[in-house]
Design a protein that fits this description.
Blueprint (H helix, E strand, L loop, with lengths): L14 E17 L2 H13 L4 H24 L4 E13 L2 E15 L1
Antiparallel strand pairs: 1-3, 2-3
Pfam families: YbjQ_1
InterPro entries: UPF0145_dom_sf, UPF0145_YbjQ-like
Protein name: UPF0145 protein SAMN02745163_02565
Length: 109
């Protein structure tokens, strides 16, 4: 699926929705490693951006986004509207990242 056909809005400029295929999602559950926690702890002593956690979060978001795209393609969608992210701590040090939206079929106007 073309990533330009994925939006947080509920329409795509220049396209009309011809079929609503329902909710699609991608979910990833990640944990921090002991080594990562030590490295992040050392970075936090200096202050500023804790790059180890930033990279972990970005990776989890990207992976959940890619899984959502795959789920939408399995439903025959060519676009996804209303995309959102959600994150929850499942257990101490274990986080779930969910990317979800509405799979649709669109046609150019």
């Amino acid at each position: 699926m073309d990533k330009n056909m994925v939006t947080t809005t509920f329409n795509l400029e220049g396209y009309k929705i011809v079929e609503n295929l329902g909710i699609v999602r991608g979910i990833i559950v990640r944990s921090r490693s002991v080594v990562g926690n030590i490295g992040a702890g050392l970075q936090s002593l200096v202050g500023g951006n804790i790059t180890i956690y930033t990279e972990l979060c970005e990776s989890a978001r990207e992976d959940s986004f890619e899984l959502m795209l795959k789920h939408a393609e399995e439903h025959g969608a060519n676009a996804i509207i209303g995309v959102r992210y959600d994150a929850n701590e499942v257990s101490q040090g274990i986080t779930e990242v969910l990317c979800y939206g509405t799979a649709v079929r669109v046609e150019k106007i």
